[in-house]
Amino acid sequence: MSMDRKTKKNNNFGKRFYLHTFGCQMNVHDSEKMAGILSEAGMSHSNHFNNADVIVLNTCSIREKAEQKFYSELGRLETVKKNNPKLKIAVAGCIAQQKGDALLKRFPYVDFIFGPDNINNLETWINFSAQDTGERLKKTALAYNPEYHFMELPVKREEGVRAWVSIMYGCDNFCAYCIVPYTRGRERSRPARDIYREVSALASQGYREVTLLGQNVNSYGKNMPENIDFSDLLCMIHEIEDMKRIRFVTSHPRDLSEKLVNTMNKLPKMCNHLHLPLQSGSDKILFQMNRGYSYREYKDKIMMLRNALPESAITTDIIVGFPGEKEEDFQATMDALKEMEFDGIFAFKYSPRPNTSAVDLPGHIDEKAKSRRLSEVLDLQSDITYRKNKKFEGSTVEVLVEGYSDTDKDKLTGRTGSNKIVNFHGSDNNIGKFVAINITEAKQHSLYGILIHSFSVS
Ligand code: SAH
Ligand code: SF4
Ligand code: F3S
Q1: How far, rounded to the nearest angstrom, does the alpha carbon of residue 204 sit from its chain's CA centroid?
Q2: Half-sphere exposure (Cβ direction) of 389: Cα atoms closer than 13 Å
Q3: Protein residues whose CB sits closer than 6 Å to any atom of ligand 2
């Protein structure tokens, strides 16, 4: 932010930080806040840990595999630290929150541990660590004091067209398999005026699409002094003229209301995409998961949405191999996928997580059966996704251009409102603008097309 804030921290000026993010979009956004704090302290970003003075690993504990990736990276850092004893290593995010002292004990070369509610402490720590006292720190108190979330942290965003903005923190749902309520604490909504202010500032910086972030955005506003719900918040954001597209993740099926569907229908800037995690097609398993809806109820919500917004894309999350999942329960999930015809899914093998109630359920499924079920789900969905993408061939879609494609460097890439990735040849001045693309080829994960024209709205 201001120069005088920077000049005060000149003991960190010119130092380099390496920041590696594991996990969900919320973690990615938290890392943008960490990068903001480190950059404001006068530090610059390094692409490799070998060249860094400070390393921050922002971790995820949603599944064992996510944890393993972090532990193997942390393992590699032991020799890096031996070769460079001045190097400072911090572990942030959900594993830091969950493991706390145990992590400090197991990894003597880690200097600082902080949880998702303690990102502001990064600033104090880098100043403190510059004094090189050798003292190690832990900050993992969950911030139930709402003032923490009124705090404005600097954010250094990765992209210039799309931005992510937190609207709530934590989760109260306690799905039987899920560690998030233990790592992110109780649900808290961020004041609407702060969200409005941040989105307005983003619009004036040139961002054209905003994604509102929370574990369960449909229950935004619960327990807040202001009488405001998620639909009201969307109406407020919609007023910001230069913000042209609004998205949100994630919705909980139980809390998806008719009011929200009507709001999505009424507000032209709302993207016609909804990510609505189903998890399982079996009522028995949904009940055991503590999801709070039956498959029938889920289906009714989808029908309500598809009736109101026939063009909308719907994506979902699926867990296979939850304890007690019999072959018939798994078939119910396969049937649900066939019936719902989602535009895309994320599918996972159930992974037992510490503290969660599902760990104690009978009927844990062996790895082999889980793997088989996962591939069956992915094979089925891959046909459905491809078939749905194919329908775009020959049509013209509106795309917000994000920049050059990572995989195909001479092409530009962007998304439709329904969140389909579209690649095409264009020029620098298309970036940040809306363009019309005629789709010539549909692939499994993206669409390819030809630029027809650029819209005058920018
Ligand atoms: N708050 C969001 C997303 C949470 S995590 C929601 O409720 O939808 C993203 C996804 O990870 C979940 O939807 C679920 O499908 C999956 N997941 C969470 N815990 C898991 C576990 N223990 N094993 C396997 N998948 C899990
Ligand atoms: Fe986890 Fe359920 Fe909360 Fe999503 S709603 S974060 S799956 S507990
Ligand atoms: Fe992972 Fe924590 Fe997100 S466990 S999925 S980083 S909320």
Answers
A1: 24
A2: 21
A3: 171, 173-175, 178, 180-181, 215-216, 252
* Mean pLDDT, residues 344-358: 97
Q: Domains in the chain, please, with CATH?
A: 3-141 (3.40.50.12160), 159-271 (3.30.750.210), 303-390 (3.30.750.200), 396-455 (2.40.50.140)
Residues 451, 452, 455, 458: what is their CA dihedral angle, to the nearest 10 degrees?
Answer: 10
Model confidence over 153-209: pLDDT tens digits?
A: 889 998 899 999 999 999 999 999 999 999 999 999 999 999 999 999 999 999 999
Strand order in the sheet with 209-213: 162-166, 209-213, 245-249
Residue 417 alpha carbon to ligand 1 centre in Å: 24
Coil, strand or helix: which one is 345? strand
Q: Model confidence over 220-239: pLDDT tens digits?
A: 999 888 899 999 999 999 99
- Please give the sequence-ordered ranges of beta strands (E in DSSP) within 93-235, or none if there are none: 112-114, 137-139, 162-166, 168-169, 188-189, 209-213
Among 20, 21, 26, 178, say which to mutate for ligand 3: greatest number of ligand atoms within 8 Å of CB: 26
Q: Which amino acid is at 120?
A: N
Ligand 1 pocket check for 177: Cβ under 6 Å? yes
Look over the chain and give the mean of its residue pLDDT values, rounded to a whole number. 93
- Helix (H), strand (E), coil (C) string for 37-55: HHHHCCCEECCCHHHCCEE
Count of Cβ atoms closer than 10 Å to residue 359 Cβ: 13
- The pTM of the full predicted model, rounded to 2 decimals, is 0.94
pLDDT of residue 153: 85
pLDDT at 40 over 50: yes
Q: 278 is written with which tokens? A: 């189903």
Nearest CA to ligand 1 atom 3: 215
